[in-house]
Each structure stands twice: as C-alpha cells, then as structure tokens.
Amino acid sequence: MTTEQVRVVVVDDHLMFRAGVRASLDGRIDVVGEAEDVGSAIAAIREHRPDVVLLDVHLPGGRGGGGAEVARECADLTPGTRFLALSVSDAADDVVAVIRAGARGYVTKAITGADLSDAVVRVAQGDAAFSPRLAGFVLDAFGTAPADVAERDDELDRLSAREQEVMRLIARGYAYREVAGELFISVKTVETHVSAVLRKLQLSSRHELTRWAAQRKLL
Amino acid sequence: MTTEQVRVVVVDDHLMFRAGVRASLDGRIDVVGEAEDVGSAIAAIREHRPDVVLLDVHLPGGRGGGGAEVARECADLTPGTRFLALSVSDAADDVVAVIRAGARGYVTKAITGADLSDAVVRVAQGDAAFSPRLAGFVLDAFGTAPADVAERDDELDRLSAREQEVMRLIARGYAYREVAGELFISVKTVETHVSAVLRKLQLSSRHELTRWAAQRKLL
DNA sequence: TTGACCATCGGGGGTCACCCTGAACCGACC
DNA sequence: GGTCGGTTCAGGGTGACCCCCGATGGTCAA
C-alpha cells in the first residue's frame, strides 16, 4: 500500500476549498478528479472510478440530497469506490444520514492535511475514519431497536385476552368480517369487542387504534 | 483528562488474561474491578460504576448472551458507563451484535497495551474505538435500508402534488371531512383524490394506505 | 385548437364502521 | 344465591367510506 497511491475524487462546491484539499493531501494520495455538484460528481466517479471520494455533505444540484444522494447513486455503479464525508457540519443528523447512505467515514473541515491523508488511506483500506466525537453519533443511531422490550403496558393489561386478539387484527387493517372469519365468531361479536377496546383505551376510531398500536410496536 | 484516571472494570473469564490487561494498561487507567461471568459482571458494574467496561464477548453465565447481554442489562442501570468490547474474535456477527447492544468500540486481543490504553481513553471521552477493519462491519450492517427509497419515489411520483397532500392526511387517520376542512375543499373533492390515490397505488382501502405510508416512513 | 391531465364539485348507492339496547351462557368471587 | 365480568350474539340506526356516473374550468404541450 505504500507502493500504490490512493486515487481520489474531491467533491465540493467551492473551488478554493478543493484547491486546499489538493494541496493538503500528501504523496500517498493522487487526486484524479474534482466535481462541484451532485450531477458532475456522479459523472466524475463513473469516469475515474476512484478508490475514495472525498464528499462534501451539502451540495447543489440533484434532487437536494447532497452528498448522501451521490453516495447512494454510486453505490451500485462503482462497488469498489468508498466514500469519506467531509463537511463543516458536525450535526448528528448530517453524520447519520451520509453514513446511512453508505459513506465509510466522516471528518470535519477543521482537520489537518496529515490527518485527512491518514483518514483517506484508512478508508481506502476498508477501515472507517471519523473525527473525534462523530463516531458516537453513528453508534447512538445504531443501538435504537432492541432496547424497548422491557416496557410493560398497563393500558394493554386492561384488555381481556379476546379483546387483545381482536384489537391486533383490527389495528392491522382487517375488516370486521375478516376478523370474524379469522376467529370463527360473528361480526356482531367483533363489533362488541371493538367497542370495548375503544372504550377502555379511550379512543374514538379504528384509525386511532392503528396509531396507538403502531406506537407500541404491537404490529 | 490527564489529571483524572479512567476507572475501568475488566470482564473476562480467564484470570490470566485479566492480569495481562491490568499489567498492560498505563497510568491513565485505574482498574477498579474485575468479573468473570455475566452475573458477576453486572454486579461489579453496578457496584463500581466505572467509566469504561472492558468486555469480553464470549462469557459464561447469564442467559448465554455473553458480553452483549451485560451491555444491554447495564445500559439503563448505569448510564454513565461505556463499553469497549475486547475479544479474540474478529467475526462480523460478533462485532455487530455487541455494538448493537450498546458498546462504543471493539478491539481484538492482538492489540498492544499502549493501543488498548488509547482505546479506553477514547471511549471514556465518548468517542468510538475499533481495531482496523472492524468498523467496516458495523457500517455494512448499518447501511441496509436505502433499497426502498428508489421504489418509494417511483410510486409516489405517480401521485400529483394535491393527491400526495390528501394521501398524507388520510394515512394519518384524518376523516374525509377533516381533510376537507384542512385543505379548504369539499368532501367530494377529497373523495375524488382518495379514489385516485388508491387506484394509482393499487390499494383497496384507507387502512392499506396507512400501512403503505407507514412502511415508507411517510408519516 | 385539440387532447391530456389536474383540481374542483355534485348525485346516487352500496358497503362498512360504530353505537345503542338487550340478551343468553359461563365462571369467579363474596 | 347473587353479583360481576367475559364472551357470545341480535336488531336498528347514523354516519363514514368508496364506488359509479357525470360536470366545470385551468394549464400545458402537440
């Protein structure tokens, strides 16, 4: 890896900044192309097929998706290319969005030339590269699925077993007749249960029930 | 951060390895406790409330969840504590599992004492710490959603602007009359738009529309 | 100018959702 | 034994939903 330079395309809407990046990167890196908006970035990446794209997060053009749009569009077209986001923003939303789009790292523009070169090399080798503090945002966004199992529901406990059964089907969009067929009871009985559910949960329609159940991940 | 030592609990099922970790960590780190299985780890963490837990991934005891189980159990109990996974395994599944459980980093046991000390300090400061190559596993597991974005646009673009507006309100549970009042149009016009939306999306009721919109996160 | 699409309305009608009262059976509890 | 709650079902009613058939006017492109 010391024998071959890392081929890089720099995407940023400011000419001066691109010149600065080009001047700051050391001999391990070869800037093979530049682009200044979403469209020209995609074209340049497809043409040069670089190892790494240094990608500004906020870009003109395209459908307003900025750097994340570029990464998404090129993910299938150029599988060997990795993306390193480079932005003034250190907002968690920006970081998570572009990482979700497929970028392998995110550094702020306060970085030094040497550190940026290191980050580019690391990303080229398949590793991740983050400015301090930013990696935590990604991990925070990552660990937000299996943590809510312990939540008990006293509202749900007020429903009888049969009422819960009917409630789940109704919340999933089943019609009364379909619920009746599913549970081998009459439509009128379903109506009775639904009325009881709505009354006990203090809801007024099956639509509210759907949202209520969705919020509690009961679907 | 040079004035205060980072307080650490070391969790590993091998006494010899714990001794090695203790001997390898430098003066910035203070090992305040040790544990050798899931149960004793949770107890030690609750007792000492360390800044960082060095956590072996494969542990005896508990419900077989290993280090991930420890991290999950302690997430709510000791919010100030961060977890750094430490394992011989460099398998992607192990890495993703323990990160998903809340760990802020993952290093292999091939690490040097100096690098491990650095990683502990970085995690204590809220940053992430990964051995080379391992961070990529997490990012790979993270970017597994953008496939439905393109499909969403195709389907959604077939709706006119007004139809999308009506669709969002209907999907949120608004009644026709409420939508009419919100958009200053007649109930009949709302009906027309809803019919067009259902026909274009090949749905048969507003309930299916709600699920359709929820799947695409349009709410 | 014509055609296509969109947004805005209306009548009519069939189905569905929701509520009301009322009732029967069963098991648990006092 | 009486009371209470759960489950089952019925008739009747009102409004919401969803479709069919129309109609008018606007914009935009061929």
Automatic annotation (TrEMBL), chains A, B:
Signal peptide: none annotated. One of its GO terms (molecular function) is DNA binding. SUPFAM superfamilies: C-terminal effector domain of the bipartite response regulators (SSF46894), CheY-like (SSF52172). The keyword rRNA-binding does not apply. InterPro entries: CheY-like_superfamily, NreC/VraR/RcsB-like_REC, Sig_transdc_resp-reg_C-effctor, Sig_transdc_resp-reg_receiver, Tscrpt_reg_LuxR_C, WalR-like. The modification 4-aspartylphosphate is found at residue 56. Residues 152-217 form the HTH luxR-type domain. One of its GO terms (biological process) is regulation of DNA-templated transcription. PROSITE patterns: HTH_LUXR_1 (PS00622), HTH_LUXR_2 (PS50043), RESPONSE_REGULATORY (PS50110). Residues 7-124 form the Response regulatory domain. Keywords: DNA-binding, Phosphoprotein. Gene3D superfamilies: 3.40.50.2300. This is DNA-binding response regulator, NarL/FixJ family, contains REC and HTH domains.
